[in-house]
Amino acid sequence: MRLRKDHRPLVLLVLLAVLLLCLLAGAAFGAVSISPLNIVKMTVDKVLPIDLSPTWQPTDETILLQIRLPRVIAGALVGAALASAGVLFQGLLRNPMADPYIIGTSAGAAFGATIAMMLPVSLTFLGFGLVPIAAFLGALGAVLLVYNLARVGGKTPVVSMLLAGFAVSAMLTAVMFFMVTLSGRTEMLQSVYSFLMGSISVSGWRKLVVVAPLAVGGIVAARFLAARLNAFALGEEGAAYLGIDVERDKLLVLALGSLLTAAAVSISGLVGFVGLVVPHAMRLVLGPDHRLLLPAAALFGAAFIVLADLVARTMLAPTEVPLGIITALIGAPFFVYLLRRTRREYAF
Amino acid sequence: MISLSHVSFSYNNAPVLTDINLEVATGEMVALLGPNGSGKTTLIKVACGVLRAAQGEVFLNGARLAGLKRRQIAQWVAVVPQQFFTPFAFTLREVVLLGRTPFLKGYSDGGPKDGQAVDQAIAQVGIEDLKERYFNELSGGERQKAVLAMALAQEPGLLLLDEPTAHLDINYQVEILELVRKLNREQGLTVIAAMHDLNMAALYFDRLVLLKGGRVFAEGRPDEVLTEEIVRDSFSASVRITRDPMTGAPHVIVKPKAYSG
After folding, report:
1. Is B66's Cβ below 8 Å from some Cβ in A?
2. Diameter of chain A measured on Cα atoms
3. A199, A283, B15, B67: which sits with the fewest CB atoms below 10 Å from its CB?
4. Which residues pair with B251 in a beta bridge?
5. pLDDT tens-digit profile of A185-219?
6. A87: nearest CA in chain B?
């Protein structure tokens, strides 16, 4: 199953090509179809200093630039960020079931974001809206809480981590709904609900301008931690023997995973199981070396969500199925399969 | 090479090490002995700085260990712990490559020098034929060799081993200790190992340090430390000591209850 070593570098090129194809497909299909050739032409016309004579309708251009492109790029960012966060959490906790959705990081981000959205004032900090910052703080708080709850004698066993993640998620979700109800702004219930189901909501480029640098920066920064994550595969003590400053790097990985989760959540709400399915698939083919695993999971995660989002918005068109439902339909059975395959480990 | 001066350590107020003074010179090969819970493993963790001594000071090559970064220590001291487990499907060579971690920086995937160190370590231990096998699928003895190769890939001056032969078949016990002694004799590698097998320690180590209740109870050449009185008083076991006619090393034989008295 695992690829031969000398083929592995090629994998990133193949995954990049797959991602570009998915982006093209995502941009082409929808209520109005746009031919892939015209998509490429319009993009070249806009991005490069080349003027092509239009072979497309002006409305096509508006749809592509204001609706489709922001949407597929947002999808790619969400997928890449969640898959990277999954790799980070799994590597650090040495726990193959760690996924931002399952361990409560996503719920923490959603909790933070909801609080920020409910504040009567709209604050900005260093040009960022309050929402991404609150989402980040919520995610970090949730992951630290789950981590400390789940820790037994220097280890984070699968069972206690799943239970702690479930409890924290349930509590945060309940408090979220309670606060919205309490505030009397019942019109917000619908938006909180769709936030929890997960769907990519961007209109134009405004939100992406804030979130994209966070997501891309986080993914690049994660790659710098690859060698340290490899050492963490031997456990915290083993990593310390190999010269890792365990406490500092642990916090760094958790913070980066929270940042990536928060970036994804502020675009799409809670989209589950991406951080589980994608890293597993990549690890199966490429092996567990984080140097290759991190970029591969980011690319594959991006392609995965772009495609899943295309299915979500075309399957029952004009009704849009929440993206989180599509990923859960794919991811949850996979999760169950993983649990059953290795259930001996989970004996109490 | 390394010296511990008045080192004490306790877990949650329960003292594990008390006023340990120990000096190990370059090229020495020292075994730590003592009953379970006497502080052997803790002493190894304090010596490599993973645990910080509550009192006293550890010096590595004359420098205060507490003042060194983990990375600097790991470039000089390698540790082979009792058990290594990874949930991921690393190959043996990938595990050995982890030994280069203290020398890698950020994005670096390791240069040819790291690859050479890894291949050399694998060759030294003699596990070339296993290097593409999955680490988790190896036998206990093979895994221990792999972890030893990982430690050697760190190109250490000081090698700390925590019961390197525990749970191993006798052929692996001999292989591992022969290899460690060869590295000690031929390359001047300084070795400190916690050992539970007194006879193996007597055969392969020049100097024994026997701990009891977190203190140094006896110290010296094997024939000085392994006497009937010392073993009885430290392990509360009644034994006879003979001499191996071939090597001259002391040999500890347990006296069954029916014969003691």
Report:
1. no
2. 68
3. B67
4. B242
5. 777 777 778 888 888 877 778 888 888 999 999 99
6. B88
Give B232 or B260, the one with higher predicted confidence: B232
Closest to A117 (Cα-Cα) out of A196, A176, A161, A72: A176
CB contact set of B17 (below 8 Å; sequence gap of 6+): B7, B8, B9, B10, B39, B42, B43, B46, B53, B214, B215
A2, A224, A235 ranked by CB distance to B106: nearest: A224
Which DSSP string corresponds to B53-118? -SEEEEEETTEEGGGS-HHHHHTTEEEE-S----SS--BHHHHHHGGGGGG--TT----HHHHHHH
Calculate the CA dihedral of residues A101, A106, A107, A108 and round it to 10 degrees: 140
| Contacts by residues B97-101 (CB-CB < 8 Å, ≥ 24 positions apart) | B97/B153, B98/A230, B98/A231, B98/A233, B98/A234, B98/A242, B98/B150, B99/A242, B99/B149, B99/B150, B99/B151, B99/B152, B99/B153, B99/B154, B100/B153, B100/B154, B101/A227, B101/A228, B101/A230, B101/A231, B101/A242, B101/A243, B101/A244, B101/B74
Interchain proximity B90–A287, CB inside 8 Å: yes
Determine the Cα–Cα distance for residues A135 and A115; give it in Å rounded to an integer.
Answer: 9
Which of B50, B81, B101 is the closest to A231 by Cβ? Answer: B101
Q: Is the CB of B107 less than 8 angstroms away from the CB of A2?
A: no
Tokens 């994550």, residue?
A: A229
Provide ipTM, 2 decimals. 0.92
Q: Provide mean pLDDT across the span B86-107.
A: 88
Show the domains of chain A with their CATH numbers: 5-346 (1.10.3470.10)
pLDDT tens digits for A254-274? 899 999 998 998 888 889 889
Tell me which of A242, A245, A292, A346 to substitute to probe the interface with B (most B C-beta atoms closer than 10 Å).
A242
Query: pLDDT at position A6, please?
Result: 65
Helix and strand element counts for chain B (H, E): 9, 12
CATH 3.40.720.10 is the classification of domain B2-222: no
Query: Domain segments of chain B: what residues?
Result: 2-222
Q: Does A94 contact B71 at a Cβ distance shorter than 8 Å?
A: no
**A205-229 CB burial, b ≥16 within 10 A, e <16:** eebbebbbebbeebbeebbebbbbb
B112 confidence band (pLDDT: 50, 70, 90): confident
The confidence score (pLDDT) of residue A126 equals: 46
Contacts of A35 (CB under 8 A, 6+ apart): A28
Which residues make Cβ contacts (< 8 Å) with residue B232, sequence separation at least 6? Answer: B238, B239
pTM of structure: 0.90
Predicted pLDDT at A35: 85
* Model confidence pLDDT, tens digit, residues B170-196: 999 999 999 999 999 999 999 999 999
